UniProtKB/TrEMBL annotation:
InterPro entries: Methyltransf_11, SAM-dependent_MTases_sf. Keywords: Methyltransferase, Transferase, Ubiquinone. The keyword Signal does not apply. It comes from Streptomyces aurantiacus JA 4570. Residues 2-102 form the Methyltransferase type domain. GO terms for biological process: antibiotic biosynthetic process; methylation. This is Putative 3-demethylubiquinone-9 3-methyltransferase. One of its GO terms (molecular function) is S-adenosylmethionine-dependent methyltransferase activity. Gene3D superfamilies: Vaccinia Virus protein VP39 (3.40.50.150). SUPFAM superfamilies: S-adenosyl-L-methionine-dependent methyltransferases.
């Protein structure tokens, strides 16, 4: 598996613990230090399944041969990229035959939901028809629409095979740290994220494209 924009490695570590061979690409020094420290604390069997590459997700062709990975993950990255189509094309080239490209983006068709659920009515009104939003740090980042991203996946020969909504309910509630309350919230999110019409108003979209 290739995890592009792996951040602090939470996802990559979970996959390595599950027995997968994972290569992560990250460019932020703070994140690189965090993931390397986290990996160093793991047993040797898990550490040996992880590889961390310092670099930009747009330069995968510099580091890897085409068709090198069965699964390519790009979660929470496209919103920060000026030319997301070029990044997607590069990730598509990394897929082996039968491979899967997993992408998580902000849902542009539901941008009004987040401020609306928080009682920010001015923000909700301004979000209708928008293509960008302000992240938690105050920066302007892009959102994506399901139909457009589905077309982009088809254009790189990894057409959409499944999609899900992410964070349907949890944008408007405090997330429990652990226990039965968290389990119940996750179960509700899992169900809503794959059920119409709830998944269409999710804060995020998870799209899976498959290479024939």
């Amino acid at each position: 598996m290739l995890d592009v924009g792996m951040g602090r490695g939470t996802q990559a570590l979970r996959l390595a613990r599950g027995g997968h061979e994972v290569t992560g690409v990250e460019r932020e020094p703070e994140h690189l230090a965090a993931v390397r420290a986290a990996a160093a604390a793991e047993p040797e069997g898990i550490r040996s399944r992880m590889r961390v590459v310092e670099g930009d997700g747009r330069d995968t062709g510099v580091h890897f041969l085409p068709g090198s990975f069965d699964v390519v993950l790009c979660h929470g990255v496209l919103m920060h990229v000026e030319e997301p189509d070029a990044l997607l094309a590069g990730l598509g080239r990394m897929l082996a035959p039968g491979g899967l490209l997993s992408v998580v983006v902000r849902n542009a068709d539901a941008l009004a939901m987040r401020p609306g659920l928080r009682g920010d009515w001015g923000g909700a009104l301004a979000a209708f028809g928008a293509h960008t939003y302000r992240d938690e740090a105050g920066g302007e980042v892009r959102a994506h629409r399901l139909d457009a991203l589905s077309q982009a996946l088809a254009g790189i020969a990894a057409p959409l095979v499944a999609w899900y909504g992410v964070r349907v309910f949890s944008e408007a509630t405090e997330i429990p740290e652990a226990g039965a309350a968290l389990d119940a919230l996750l179960a509700a999110e899992e169900r809503a994220g794959r059920t119409e019409p709830y998944r269409r108003v999710a804060s995020m979209l998870h799209l899976c494209g498959g290479r024939d």
